[in-house]
Amino acid sequence: MTSSSTGGAPRRPARWPRVLVKLSGEAFAGTAGLGIDGEVVTELARELVEAKQAFDVDIAVVVGGGNIWRGMSGEGAGMDRAQADYMGMLATAINALALQETLERLGQPTRVQSAIHMSQVAEPYIRRRAIRHLEKGRVVIFAGGTGNPFMTTDTTAALRAVEIDAGAILMGKHGTDGVYTADPQLDPSAELLPELSYIDVLNRGLKVMDSTAITLCMDNDLPICVFDLLGRNISPILEGEHVGTVVS
Q1: What is this structure's pTM?
Q2: Which of 25, 198, 231, 245 is close enough to 64 for a disulfide, judged by CB 3.0 to 4.6 Å?
Q3: Which residues of the chain register pLDDT less than 70?
Q4: Residue 7: what pLDDT?
C-alpha cells in the first residue's frame, strides 16, 4: 500500500488496512430486478474508487449473481442442484467483468480472479497472486464463487476474506440498511439491531449470511459490517463510524 493517492494528497489510515466487500448481485439490477443496470454499477464502482482515494486500504470484492441466476431457483424447478450452482458461478463472472470495466473506466486498476478456469477473461484464483495485486493498489474481484456447488457467495466472501487476511467483511445489502428483528418491509415494528454476536445470528436464524459463512467468520474472529449497499456507506465505515449492523 502507498501513503498517497494518485493526486498526491495524503490518504487517511482506514479502520482496517484490508477489507473484503461483498456486493449483492441483486443490487446490480437496480429497480429492474434482473440484468445489469449500468448506472447502478457506476455508482457502486465510484464508491469503491472514492474509498481507495481517501484511505490507505486494500480492497477485495466478492460479487453475487442473483440478478442473473440463482441456483436454488433452478433446483426448485427440478434442475440438478450442482448444475444450477455452476450456472450461478458463471453469473458472478458476468457481474465481476461489468464491475471491472466500470472501475477501470474510473481510473482504478483491477484484476478479476475466478475459481472456475476461464483464461480469456480472468486470472485463476491464486491466493498469493491476489495478495500481491492488493499490495500494488489494485482492486481484486473474486468471481466464480468457491468453485464448488452447494456453497453460496456469502461463504466465498468469508473464505476469501480469511485467505487474504482481511480485517473485516463489508457486506452490502440491497434494500436494507442492516439486520432487523424481522423483515421491515413486512413488519413495521421491526427494529434495527446495531450489534450482534455470531451466536445470536445462528441461534435466532437471522438472514445475515448462511450458517457456513457465519461459522467461518466466528472461527476466525472476522467482523461483518452489514449496511445499505447504495447508501454511500463504505467510506464512513472505513473512517470508523458505526453504520448498519456489526456482527462480531
Answers
A1: 0.92
A2: 25
A3: 1-9, 71-76
A4: 52
The three cell numbers of residue 186 are 413486512
- Over residues 51-70, the pLDDT tens digits come to 999 999 999 999 999 899 87
Residue 5 lies in a domain: no
Residue closest to 157 by CA, chosen among 97, 216, 232 = 216
Q: What is the sign, positive or negative, of the torsion defined by CA atoms of 35, 36, 39, 44?
A: positive
Residue 32 lies in a domain: yes
In a domain, 4, yes or no: no
Q: For 244, phi and psi rounded to 5 degrees?
A: 65, -130
C-alpha cell at 158: 468469508
231 and 244 Cβ atoms separated by less than 8 Å? no
Asked if the structure places residue 123 within a domain, the reply is yes
Question: Could you list the residue range(s) of the whole structural domain that residue 67 is in?
Answer: 12-247
Query: How far apart, in whole angstroms, are the C-alpha atoms of residue 103 and residue 100?
Result: 5
State residue 27's pLDDT score: 85
pLDDT in tens, 182-202: 877 788 888 889 999 999 999
Task: Provide the sign of the torsion angle of the four alpha carbons 17, 235, 3, 157, taken in this order.
Answer: positive
Burial class of 13 by CB neighbour count within 10 A (0 to 12, 13 to 18, 19+): middle
* Structural domain total, the chain: 1
Q: What are phi and psi of 173, to 5 degrees?
A: -105, 150
Q: Can you give the CATH number for the domain in which 34 is found?
A: 3.40.1160.10
